[in-house]
Design goal:
Layout: H1 2-48, H2 53-77, H3 85-133, H4 141-157
Amino acid sequence: MIGGAMKRQKDDERIVYQSLAMIMQFGLNMIVPICLMSALGIWLDRKFDTSFFTIALFAVGAVAGGQNIYRIAKGMCGAEEPRTAEKTYSAEKPRTAEKTHSAEKTRTAEKTYSAEKTRIAEETRSADEIRREGGRDSEGESAVKAKTASAVRNEDNGDE
């Protein structure tokens, strides 16, 4: 009983700490862009003796912070965020590499299959020629038949 209660208490503490971390993450992701853009706006206003850079860049910082919060919230909910052109490109690179690798594996498998099929056909032809001639080769006709039958069974089972 005591062990279960302690485990539950540790789980509750972990959930509290995770929640606090999430709240801090939301706050920082909102405050940092606003503060940086506002500081840049104040500096530009002093340098050019204007008063609109601070307001404009504050708004840009607020939008950037809101976008950060939105992305984090979508990620936590398990929903996929909308894909932009550059994200699509960077996300497609590994998939393209996987497709290339898969295509290469397929080509290699097809070549192997084709070579195996050719080898089986040649062995079958050799067995047929031996039967027609009525003779035996060094392995004997029964060995050739057994190899051919085994290769056909492997081909039917999908073994390579």
